[in-house]
C-alpha cells in the first residue's frame, strides 16, 4: 500500500517504534479480551527526553529504537509534536488540544545546565524542586494532580501509591489532551441498542450511533478488513484531525488484523485509498474506557534495556553519583470517549528515576464486533492515539 509522503521522506517523523510498542501491548490485551487505548506520541516524547539525558551505548540504543541519528533531531521532533498538539494560541473551531511536560527533581540535586535547557526549551517543561526523601507520597499526589489538571480531569492517579521512594531522584511526565467534534455529528435520537459480538461468542446489547441515510462516508475495502475515516471539525489553521475505524471482515478477525499491522510498521502512517461511499448500513458503537500500563517490562522485551540499568543516564542530574541513575518505571495512562458529538481522549506518561546504591458485496460499515481505531493528524501523519474496542460496555 502507498505510504504517506510526509511520514517516509521526513525522517524526523519516524515514530514507528512507539507504534510497534503500542501494537505489542494491544496484542497482549486483545488476547485477554480487554479494551485498549494508548498514545504513541506521548511515549515517544518521554523516550526522547530520556535519550537527551543519556550517553554511550544507552544513547545509541535509544536512538536506534527511536529511528533517529541524534538527540538534536529527537528534540526537534518533540518540539514539533508539542507545537502541533498544543499550539501557542487556541485556534477557534478545531479540536481542543494540549500537550504539556513536567519534571520533579529532588531538592538535593540540580539538573545539568545543558539538560535543563533542553527540558525547558525543546520540551517546554515546568521544573519543580521536591523532597522525595521525607515526602515521597506528597510528590505522588502533586504529579497526579498536575496530570489530572492537564487532561481536564480525565487522567487520574497516573502514579500509583508507593511508586516513588526516598531514593527517587527525578520524575519526568507528560500529558496529552484531545477533544474533537465530528465534522458531521450523529443524531442522538437515531442511536439505538443493537447486538455486539464478543470474541468469546457472547452477544451484548450496545448503544450504536448512525447518521442520516444520505450522508456519504470516507470508506475503503481492503484484504480482510474495511476502513472508515471520520473527520473532525477544522479550525482556522493547517491541522486536520480524523478518527479511523479498522473493522475486520470476520467477527473474530481482530487477531489477523493485529498481525497485519505487526508485520508492517508503517501501516498506520500510510495514506489509505478511501472514497466517498453511500453506506447502506452504517452503525458504530459508543464507547468510553481507560487503560493503564507500566511500560518498562514490555520495552525491555522489545530490546530497549540499557536505560533501565545504572551507568549512562549521566547527562540529567549534576551529581558525582549520576552514573547510578536509571529509569525504574514508565507509567502510561490513557482514556477515550466516543459519542454522537465527537471524541474526548487523554494520555499521560511518567518516568521515574532511582539513584541506586546497590470484503462484503453491499457497502456497509457495521462495527458490531471487535475493531481497531486511531486518531491521526493528517498534515503531518502523526498518530495521536491507537486503540481497540473488544467490548464497548467495558470500562477497563
From TrEMBL:
Gene Ontology molecular function: serine-type endopeptidase inhibitor activity
Single GO cellular component term: extracellular space
Residue stretches in coiled coil: none
Superkingdom of the source species: Eukaryota
One Pfam family hit: Serpin
Record-annotated Serpin domain positions: 19-392
SMART domains: SERPIN
Annotated family: Belongs to the serpin family.
Protein name: Serpin-Z2B
Amino acid at each position: 500500500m502507498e505510504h504517506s509522503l510526509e511520514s517516509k521522506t521526513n525522517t524526523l517523523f519516524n515514530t514507528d517504534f512507539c507504534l510497534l510498542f503500542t501494537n505489542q501491548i494491544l496484542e497482549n490485551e486483545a488476547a485477554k479480551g480487554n479494551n485498549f487505548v494508548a498514545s504513541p506520541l506521548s511515549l515517544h516524547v518521554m523516550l526522547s527526553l530520556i535519550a537527551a539525558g543519556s550517553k554511550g551505548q544507552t544513547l545509541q540504543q535509544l536512538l536506534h529504537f527511536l529511528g533517529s541519528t541524534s538527540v538534536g533531531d529527537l528534540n526537534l521532533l518533540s518540539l514539533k509534536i508539542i507545537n502541533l498538539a498544543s499550539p501557542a494560541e487556541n485556534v477557534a473551531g478545531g479540536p481542543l488540544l494540549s500537550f504539556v511536560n513536567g519534571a520533579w527533581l529532588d531538592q538535593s540535586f540540580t539538573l545539568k545546565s545543558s539538560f535543563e535547557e533542553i527540558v525547558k526549551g525543546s520540551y517546554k517543561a515546568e521544573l519543580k524542586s521536591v523532597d522525595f526523601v521525607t515526602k515521597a507520597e506528597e510528590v505522588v499526589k502533586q504529579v497526579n494532580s498536575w496530570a489530572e489538571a492537564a487532561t481536564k480531569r480525565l487522567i487520574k492517579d497516573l502514579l500509583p501509591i508507593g511508586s516513588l521512594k526516598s531514593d527517587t531522584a527525578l520524575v519526568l511526565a507528560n500529558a496529552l489532551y484531545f477533544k474533537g467534534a465530528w465534522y458531521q455529528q450523529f443524531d442522538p435520537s437515531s442511536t439505538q441498542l443493537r447486538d455486539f459480538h464478543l470474541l468469546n461468542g457472547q452477544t451484548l446489547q450496545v448503544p450504536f450511533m448512525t447518521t442520516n441515510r444520505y450522508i456519504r462516508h470516507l470508506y475503503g475495502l481492503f484484504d480482510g478488513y474495511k476502513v472508515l475515516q471520520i473527520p473532525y471539525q477544522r479550525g482556522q489553521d493547517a491541522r486536520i484531525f480524523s478518527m479511523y475505524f479498522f473493522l475486520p471482515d470476520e467477527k473474530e478477525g481482530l487477531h489477523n488484523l493485529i498481525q497485519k499491522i505487526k508485520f508492517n510498521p508503517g501501516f498506520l502512517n500510510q495514506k489509505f485509498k478511501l472514497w466517498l461511499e453511500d453506506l447502506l448500513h452504517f452503525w458504530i458503537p459508543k464507547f468510553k474506557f481507560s487503560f493503564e500500563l507500566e511500560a518498562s517490562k514490555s520495552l525491555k522485551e522489545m530490546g530497549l534495556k540499557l536505560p533501565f540499568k545504572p551507568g549512562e543516564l549521566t547527562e540529567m542530574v549534576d551529581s558525582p553519583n549520576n552514573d547510578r541513575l536509571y529509569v525504574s518505571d514508565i507509567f502510561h495512562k490513557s482514556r477515550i470517549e466516543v459519542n454522537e458529538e465527537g471524541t474526548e481522549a487523554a494520555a499521560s506518561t511518567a518516568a521515574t528515576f532511582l539513584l541506586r546504591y546497590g470484503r462484503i458485496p453491499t457497502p456497509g460499515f457495521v462495527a458490531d464486533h471487535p475493531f481497531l481505531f486511531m486518531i491521526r493528524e493528517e498534515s503531518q501523519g502523526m498518530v495521536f492515539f491507537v486503540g481497540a474496542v473488544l467490548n464497548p460496555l467495558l470500562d477497563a
